[in-house]
Specification:
Length: 1003
């Protein structure tokens, strides 16, 4: 994140709108913010942090107090902050909740985030959405931003002094180590699921045999594996023999069925041939009955073929006849139009004298307009000067008296009285300090209550854990009794099977003393139920222990935080009484401060009114003097001018407008006459030429028409056909192809039918009509017998396949279960190692974070070595923490002068500032190298340099100056003069009684 522009309005000590344009740094990578105490230096960092997260940069300031006490009630408090992230430009406009200037309903907290894409386009418009989007863009939440990019005033040691838990949260957010935590949690979850899966696989293997449909299967399932395998092989042999017997019977039945189907198919084919023969005979008789109709159609075809030869002559004659009639019609219409144009031309010649008069009138109007154009500027100048002189006289008389003189005197007296009253009122710093003390006491009280609540939950968790432990112990004893009973039952079974003289399968001895049986029988169902109950209690015990460890760790953290808060407050008495006393003090100071605010607001309003009236009075006098001088100048100008008698700007303008309108009308009328005359002459000549051409064309077409008529009569005479007969047959010419095609198809179809009939009769020969129904009955009986045998064969095959499939699955389950048990042991080892069940007490995620943290310390020690001349080095604590506390990220500092390491909390103020600054710089460098998602282009430091001696200050300045080469922007708030002298870019904050102002100075 790199700032581009910051605009502050009515925020903190800034009453007006102040803007900081960081682009004016012009490549400089470091700037110093300087100013008097309370001027508003830290408020600049507050404004940036508030724009991004809606909170102040430090813990001691609240966003609700950002409304400027110096601002005008009508001016809204607002922060407009634009910045870049990885060359993408963004802008946030945020307003805190603030009082409404006209009613009691406050203006709500609002925020809008924009992104630059040729224009500012909104990305998020709700407060929560803006905060989530900012955290996604920066990859940092508010607390991490305040520990990494910003070192707040009096809080720069937060990252340095934080414990392992907080450092883990920071490293997790920056380096995205959630994947490693998810990895270790996934293996723990995988172990639990896989353990249940293995248990179910063992039970599934046992139940798989029960899927065999056999009366002996339940007894067989209780035997050992070799006996089960032998029984399964015998059963498969029996099923295979049954299948072979049924298969032999089915083959014999299939042969009988095939013979019956062959006889039926032959009979069916013969019957179809006989039906086809009858169909052909009927079709041939129908063709012979239609011979008379075919003779008539042949005669019509011959007549139409003659008509087709005459068709071109007739069509040419008709075309020429239509053309001649069209030309005659066009010639008559052309003659009528020519007569019309001649009449229009005669009318236009009668109007020629009138057009001559209009042209002369237009020439006179043009001459008069030229004269008016020469006179009008002189007349207008005289009239404008006269009107301006009158207006100036009236304004000078009005400005001679200041109407608010009495009000100005009254406000000056009130301003002096208010200034005296403000000198007796206390400053707001006392209220700020009291409220800060109250917030710390309130937070301390909250910690005390939370410690008590967590301690109560811890005690309840401990009692619950003891109850679960007792139940777990009792259930373990019960399961052990079941195991002993099962072992006794197995011993009885072995004793019963042992024969005299045979070697014992356990010890190999051939003789044993007689042993009495246990007399009991294990209950398998109760045994399984007891095991399941023990597993549930085992899980509950594990969860109870985990809850206890979490609550114990939370209580330890709360106690440490409570003790730290007590030390910071230097307070060890009853929290309630101190909180009440501080609340009373805050209430009293608030009343005094509210009274002071009211007086200050009245004083500012009065001062503004006085300055406004004084400015108005001065401006009125200056304006009157300026108007008086202008009046004298105009008077001198009028004395040198001469007025034209009887002429004014109005009369000349009116005459000019009238002449212009008349001239335009005359010009249009003359132009229209000339255009119409030219057009009518052109149209009349064109129409005469058209009439001549149409006459010649008509004579030519009539000659061609007579020739075509003679040719048509000659052609009709040749084929001995009258014109009426030709016209009648001409309507049927289009049907000629259809008639020919139909006649040819009928003849072709008759030949095909006669040939097919002969072929069918040859195939049938002298065979009689077959008995199809009797043959069908024979096929049906054979088919039913075959289907019955098929069902028996399918049943036998299914039983055999099911047997083999079950055996294969049972064998596969046994092998898979053995492999699953071995894999479960491996998964348990990985899960325990990943969740920290190891000598170092390091989870997988913490182990990865320590690798990143070591890189950060390496980079930080380079800067720390430079600032401390090699005295100090930061190092990670390697020793394992006691109990269940998390470890691995605690910090120690090695002192080269003593040769020993100590806690970083023991560093002095100056030493702690150096270590914190080095750690922040190292973190930024490593993040820029490794984490592309986090942008750490800016570092903001609020105070801290005042704790350094001269040598340390010089070393710190040299370090910060060296950062400019890396392009990182560093902003520092400091009162140290040497630092301000070394940096050529400064933001100077100036404090006044009406609010602070900001000025960016670049040397």
């Amino acid at each position: 994140m790199r700032p581009v522009s910051l605009t502050i309005t009515a925020f903190g000590p800034y009453a007006e709108t102040e803007t900081i344009d960081f682009t004016k740094l012009e490549g400089r990578s470091m700037f110093v913010i300087s100013g008097r105490t309370g001027a508003g230096k830290t408020t600049i960092f507050d404004a940036m942090t508030f724009a991004l997260y809606g909170r102040a940069s430090g813990l001691l300031r609240n966003a609700s107090d950002f409304r400027s006490q110096y601002a005008d009630p009508e001016r809204k408090t607002e922060i407009d902050f634009s910045f870049t992230i990885r060359d993408e430009r963004y802008r946030i406009v945020r307003q805190p909740q603030q009082p409404h200037p006209k009613n009691k309903t406050p203006i709500p907290h609002e925020a809008v985030l924009y992104e630059w894409n040729d224009a500012w386009k909104p990305v998020a418009t709700k407060v929560n959405d803006v905060e989530q989007t900012i955290e996604s863009l920066l990859q940092l939440n508010y607390e991490q931003f305040s520990q990494i990019l910003l070192l707040p005033q009096n809080q720069f040691r937060q990252l340095l002094d934080s414990d392992s838990v907080k450092k883990q949260q920071i490293l997790q957010s920056i380096f995205k180590t959630e994947a490693y935590r998810a990895f270790q949690e996934e293996w723990v979850e995988r172990h639990g699921k896989y353990r249940k899966q293995v248990e179910w696989a063992i039970e599934t293997t046992r139940l798989k045999l029960l899927e065999l449909e056999d009366e002996e299967i339940e007894t067989v399932a209780m035997r050992n594996v070799p006996d089960i395998v032998t029984w399964l092989e015998d059963r498969e042999e029996r099923l295979l023999q049954t299948k072979d017997t049924v298969q032999l019977e089915k083959r014999t039945a299939e042969i009988r069925l095939e013979e019956a189907r062959t006889h039926l198919n032959e009979a069916t084919v013969l019957l179809a041939l006989m039906e086809e023969r009858d169909t052909y005979r009927n079709a041939l008789n129908t063709f012979r009955d239609a011979e008379e109709d075919r003779v008539r159609r042949r005669a019509l075809i011959e007549r139409l073929e003659k008509v087709v030869t005459i068709q071109p002559h007739y069509e040419r004659f008709e075309t020429l006849r239509r053309d001649a009639e069209r030309i005659k019609k066009d010639r008559i219409e052309s003659q009528k139009r020519d007569e019309t144009y001649a009449a229009q031309l005669e009318t236009l010649h009668e109007q020629s004298d009138k057009m001559t008069e209009l042209r002369q009138e237009a020439e006179r109007a043009n001459n008069r307009l030229t004269d008016i154009a020469e006179l009008l500027p002189y007349v207008e100048e005289w009239q404008r000067a006269t009107e301006k002189r009158t207006a100036l006289k009236r304004q000078v008389e009005q400005l001679g008296v200041f109407t608010d003189e009495a009000r100005l005197v009254e406000l000056r007296d009130l301003e002096q009285k208010l200034a005296k009253q403000l000198e007796d009122k206390p400053a707001t710093e006392q209220l700020v300090e009291a409220e800060r003390r109250y917030s710390q006491l309130e937070y301390h009280s909250h910690l005390v209550e939370k410690c008590e609540r967590v301690a109560s939950e811890l005690a309840a968790c401990e009692r619950n854990g003891k109850d679960v432990q007792r139940q777990h112990t009792a259930q373990t004893t019960l399961v052990e009794r079941f195991v002993e009973a099962e072992h006794a039952l197995m011993a009885d079974t072995l004793r019963d099977r042992l024969k005299a003289g045979d070697p014992c399968p356990v010890c190999g001895s051939r003789s044993h003393e007689p042993v009495e049986g246990s007399g009991g029988r294990a209950n398998v169902t109760e045994h399984q139920l007891a095991i399941e109950t023990l597993r549930r209690l085992d899980t509950a015990l594990h969860e109870a222990r985990a809850d206890y460890r979490a609550l114990k760790r939370q209580l330890d953290e709360l106690v440490n935080e409570r003790d730290t808060a007590s030390e910071a407050l230097q307070f060890h008495g009853p929290a309630g009484e101190a909180l009440k006393h501080q609340a009373s003090l805050v209430q009293t100071l608030r009343g005094d401060v509210e009274e002071r605010k009211r007086l200050e607001a009245t004083y500012r309003t009065t001062t503004q009114a006085v300055r406004k009236l004084e400015t108005a009075k001065r401006e009125q006098a200056e304006k009157r003097q300026s108007l008086f001088e202008a009046l004298q100048s105009i008077q001198e100008t009028l004395q040198t001018m001469r007025q034209v008698d009887g002429m004014t700007r109005t009369t000349l303008t009116t005459e000019r407008d009238q002449l212009t309108l008349r001239l335009q009308a005359v010009t249009r009328e003359v132009a229209e006459y000339e255009r119409r005359l030219e057009e009518v002459n052109r149209l009349k000549w064109g129409e005469a030429e058209r009439f001549r051409l149409l006459t010649e064309q008509l004579e030519f077409e009539e000659r061609r028409l007579n020739e075509a008529r003679a040719q048509l009569d000659e052609a009709l005479q040749k084929i001995e056909l009258t014109e009426d007969a030709f016209l009648q047959d001409r309507t049927l010419v289009d049907t000629l192809p259809t008639l020919k095609e139909r006649l040819a198809k009928e003849l072709e179809e008759a030949g095909r039918i006669e040939h097919a009939l002969q072929a069918v009769e040859v195939k049938i020969g002298a065979r009689p009509r077959p008995e199809v129904e009797a043959l069908k009955e024979r096929v049906r009986v054979a088919q039913e017998e075959n289907e019955s045998l098929s069902e028996r064969l399918v049943t036998a095959d299914v039983h055999l396949k099911r047997h083999r499939q079950t055996v294969r699955e049972w064998n596969a389950l046994r092998e898979q279960t053995d492999a699953d048990v071995r894999r479960l042991e491996t998964i348990k080892l990985i899960a325990d190692t990943g969740r920290g069940v190891n000598p170092q007490k390091l989870t997988f995620e913490t182990y990865v974070q320590t690798a990143f943290f070591d890189q950060i310390l390496h980079a930080a020690n380079i800067h720390l070595d430079q600032m401390t001349s090699g005295q100090f080095q930061l190092e990670r604590k390697i020793e394992t923490a006691k109990g269940n506390a998390k470890s691995g990220l605690e910090l120690l500092v090695f002192d080269a002068y003593t040769g020993q390491s100590r806690r970083v909390q023991n560093l002095s103020g100056g030493e702690g500032f150096k270590a914190s600054l080095s750690l922040a710089l190292g973190l930024a460098e490593v993040v820029q190298q490794l984490s592309g998602g986090v942008s750490l282009e800016t570092m903001l430091i609020d105070e801290g340099f005042g704790t350094l001696d001269a040598e340390s200050l010089d070393q710190a300045i040299e370090l910060l100056m060296s950062l400019q080469s890396s392009g990182r922007l560093v902003g520092v708030i400091s009162h140290v003069q040497e630092l301000k002298d070394r940096v050529d870019a400064r933001i100077e904050v100036k404090k006044t009684r009406s609010g602070s102002t900001i000025q960016l100075v670049v040397e």
